[in-house]
Amino acid sequence: MAAVIDYYALLEVEASATADEVKKAYRKKALIWHPDKNSSEEAQEMFHYITEAYNVLSDTEKRRVYDMQFEPEGDFVEAYQQHSNGSGSGAGPRGSSGNLDDSWLSQQPSFIPAWGTSATTSTTTTTLPSPTLVSSSLFDGYNCAGGIAVDKSPNQNLFMVGWSNNASSSSCGASSAGPLWIIKYNTNNTNFSAINFTSVSGLANGVALDAQGFPYVGGAANGFFFLKVDPFNLSVLLRGVYAAGNGANGIAVDSSNNVVLVGAADDAWVTIKFNALGNVSWFNKVSLFEPQTLTAVAVDSSDNIIAGGRTYDSFAAPLTGIYDCVLLKLSPDAQQSWALQFGSGSVSSVSGVAVDKQDNIYITGWISGGGGMDGDNNTFAGGTDAFVAKYYSSGSRIWIRLLGTAGGDL
Question: What does pTM read for this prediction?
Answer without folding.
Answer: 0.68
